[in-house]
Amino acid sequence: MIRTTLAAIAATCLAFGSAGAYAQQKIKLGLILGLSGPLNVVGAEQKRGFDIAMDHLGGKLGGIPVEIVQADSKANPSATVQEFSRLIEKDKVDLITGLTASNEIIAAMKPITDAKMIFVGMNGGPAPLAGEQCNPYYFNVSFQNAQLTAGMGSYMVNAGVKKLYLIGMDYEAGHEHTHAARKGYSGDVVAHTFTPLSQVDFAADIAKIRASGADGVFAFYPGGPGIAFVRQWNQAGLGGKIPLFSNIALSEPTVFQAQGKTAMGIQMSAVYFAAMDNPANRKFVADFRVKFGRDPASYAGLAYDAIMLIDSAVRAVKGDVKNTEALRAALKKADFQSVRGDFRFNTNQQPIQSTYAVVVDARPDNSLYLKEVKVAAKNAPDDFVAKCPMK
Amino acid sequence: MALGLLIEQTFNGLQLGMILFLMAIGVTLAFGVMNLINLAHGSMLMLGAYFIAAASAKTPSYLIAFVVAMAGIALVAALLEVTLIRPLYARGHLDQVLATFGISIALNELVIWIWGREAMFVSLPEALDGFVQIGSNIQYPVYRLAITSVAILAGLALFALLSRTRLGMRIRAGAEKGEMIGALGVNVRALFTAVFVISAMLAALGGVMLGPLLAVQSGMGDPLLILALAVVVIGGIGSLKGALVASLLVGLTDTFGRMVFPDLLGQLVGNIVANASVYILMALVIAIRPTGLFGKR
User: Who wins on pLDDT, A320 or B2?
Assistant: First the structure.
C-alpha cells in the first residue's frame, strides 16, 4: 500500500515535471494502422514507409529520441476508438499518427477532440471532416478522398471518351471516388453501378460493359477485388480494346506482382507515385527499393510524409510537444520536404496539392511502374473547404 | 437483347454455379454424414489456390503443379480431420461453429505467415489462354469454359463414387443411419476422414481453378463460403441433389439479376435488388419450403 502510494506520488511529480515548458528527453508517438483485417495490405505498406522515415531520421523526431507505441486499428471503427483510448489514457502518448480506412478516421474524432490530442492522418480523409466537421486536432497529410480522383473527368473527355461506364465497390469510398470521376466529365454516362464488397467474380458485369457499347470505363476496386477485376478484364479480351480508367487504388506496386502484365495501360489519377522527380522522393524511393526490392506504393509515400511533417513541427517547437497550440501552428506550416514536391495545408488542415494522370507501363527489365502522363489538377484544394468553419 | 450476350451470361452463370457446387458439396456432405457444421471450408478453397501458386512457381508443367497441389490439400485435410475436426463430431453445433471458425482464422493467418500479405500470382495454363467466338463480337475465354467443364466432370465423378462404389455406399449409409453402419463393423472413423478429405479436395479444386481469376490472398474463400451456405440452405441441408440444383439456381440468379434488374428498376434500386437477389431467393425458398428445395421433412 505504502509502496503504491509512493509510486503514485513519484509518477505525479514526474508528470508535472515534464508538463513544464522544458524540452522533453523523449517523445512518445502513437502509431495506429490497420495491420490486420481487410485492409492489412495497405496497413503493412504504410508501416514500410514509416520505417524508412524513421531510418532517415535516425529514430528521432526533431532531434529528440522517440518511443513508438504501436496499435492495430483492424480497419474497424470500434477497435480504433478502443486503441485511441489506450494510447491516450494508458500509454500517455504525445501525439498520434496513422489510420488506414475512412470510417476509422471518423471514429477517431471523438477521442482526439476530448483529449485535445493531435492526430496526423496518413491515408484518405472522408468528405465531412474536410467540410463542416473539420477538426482542429486532425491534420490530413495524405489526400481528401475525392481529391485522389480530381481532374479525371476532364482527362477522360480529352482521351476521347464519349460513353462512360462507371463501376465500383458498394461502400463509402466507392461512391465518393466514382462520383468524383464524373466531375468535369461532359459525355454520356451509360451506367453508374456498384457491386457488393464480397463479390470476387466480375464476369457478369464485364459482359454487361461490353454489351453497353461504352468506350471508356472508370472502375474503383482497391486491393484483392482490384486484382481480380483487372485480370478478368484482360481474360475477357477487353484489355487494350476499351480504355480502363481509375485512381491509384486499382493498380500500384502492392498488387503489380499479382496483376502482372494485365495491368499494362490502365490510366489512373494519383497524388503520389514512385517516379515523381524531386530530391526527397529520389532518396525515399532509392532506400525503399534497397530494403523491400520494389517501388513504394502511395500508402508508403504518404506515411513517409506524415513522419517528415511531424519531425518538422517537433523541431520548430524545440521538442515542447506538450504545448498543443504551438505544435498545431508548427504542423500547419508544413515546413518539410514532401516526396510529392509542392505541399501545403489549407485552412481545414487538408492538403493543397497536385493530382497527376499516370499509366501502368513496363521498364526494359519487364518490371511494372507508374509513368506520368500529365498533371490532371495543379495545386488544387479539396471541394469541401468552404464548409469548414476554421479559417 | 442480343443472343450472344444471353449465351455469354448463361455461361457465366453456369460457371459461378458449378464453382459454388464444388464448395457446397463439402458443406452438405459434412453436415449430412458427420453432422458437422464446417466454417473452415472456405480455407480449403484458399489453400488450393495458394498451393497451385506455390507449385506452379517451381515447375513449368501445369499438370505436375496441379497434382502436387491436390496431393498437398489431401494431406493437410487428413491431418486437420484427425487432429482437430474429429473431436468436434460429438460436440454441439455451436461448438463446431466456433471451433471451425477459429480454424479458418488460424489458416488465414498461416498463409500470411508463409507467403506474406500481398496477393500471389497464378498464371493461366497456356493451352487454355484463348477465346471462343460467340456471335459476331463476343470472345468468350476458353479458361472459363474449362472451369465449368472440369467442375461438371468432378461432380459426375462424385456421383459415380457415391452410387457405384462400396465407399460411396457406406457414405450414403452413414448419412442415413450413422450408428447402424458403426454397429455393422464399418470403420466409421476412416469413413469420416475420407469424406472430409474428398470434400476438401473438391473445394480446393475450385480454388486451383479460380487462382488465375481471383486475388490469391488470405481469406479469399470466405465470400464464396457465404454463397455456398446460401446454396445449401436453398437446396436443403444435407441433400446433394439439392446442392446441385441450388448452385445452378444461385449462379444464374446472381448473373442474370445483375444484368436485368438495373435496366428494369433503375440504377439505384436495380443495383440494390441485383446485389441482394441471391438472398431474396433464399428468403422466398425458406418461406415456402422451410427445409429447402430437397430437404427432408
Answer: A320
Q: Average pLDDT for residues B194-199, to the nearest whole number?
A: 95
Matching residue, cell 495491420? A35
The closest CB to that of B144, out of A193, A194, A203, belongs to A203
Which among B113, B103, B39, B97 is positioned nearest to B76, based on CA atoms? B103
Q: How far is it, in rounded angstroms, from Cα A294 to Cα A317? A: 36
Judge: A258–B258 Cβ closer than 8 Å, yes or no.
no
Sign of the Cα torsion A331, A150, A201, B208 reads negative
Q: Which three cell numbers stand for residue B149?
A: 467443364
What is the pTM for the complete model shown? 0.84
The verdict on B123 touching A (C-beta cutoff 8 Å) is yes
> What whole-number distance in Å separates Cα of residue B73 and Cα of residue B197?
8
At A114-143, the pLDDT tens digits run: 999 999 999 988 899 999 999 999 999 999
pLDDT in tens, A277-307: 999 999 999 999 999 999 999 999 999 999 9
Taking the C-alpha atoms of residue A87 and residue A70, their distance in angstroms, rounded to an integer, is 9
Give chain B positions within 8 Å (CB) of A235.
Answer: 124, 141, 143-144, 212-213
* Residue B6: other Cβ atoms inside 10 A: 16
Contact with chain A for residue B143, Cβ under 8 A: yes
Q: For A293-315, give one letter per residue: b (16+ CB within 10 A) or e.
A: ebbbbbbbbbbbbbbbbbbbbbb
CA-to-CA dists, residue A379 to A318, A344, A353, angstroms: 30, 9, 4
Scanning B79-108 for CB atoms below 8 A from A yields none
Closest by CA to B177, choosing from B35, B24, B27, is B35
Q: Is A128 on the interface with B (CB under 8 A)?
A: no
Q: Quick check: helix, strand or coil at residue A119? A: strand
Q: Convert A173-185 to b/e letters by CB count within 10 Å (16 or more is b).
A: bbbbbbebbbebb
Say whether residue A254 is in contact with chain B using an 8 A CB cutoff: yes
- pLDDT above 60: residue A269: yes
CA distance A302 to chain B (A): 19
Cell numbers given for B144: 472459363
CB A184 within 8 A of CB A154: yes
Residue in chain B lying closest to A38 (CA): B219
Cβ-based contacts of A210 with chain B (< 8 Å): 137-138
ipTM above 0.85?
no
Taking a C-beta distance cutoff of 8 angstroms, is the pair A228, A199 a contact?
no
DSSP A148: G
| CA–CA distance, A127 with A112 (Å, rounded to integer) | 18
> Cell numbers of B239, please?
441433400
Contacts 24+ apart (CB under 8 A), A274-280: A274/A301, A274/A369, A274/A370, A275/A369, A275/A370, A275/A371, A275/A372, A276/A339, A276/A340, A276/A341, A276/A372, A278/A337, A278/A339, A278/A340, A278/A341, A279/A337, A280/A308, A280/A337, A280/A338, A280/A339
**Which chain A positions have a beta carbon within 8 Å of B255's beta carbon?**
203-204
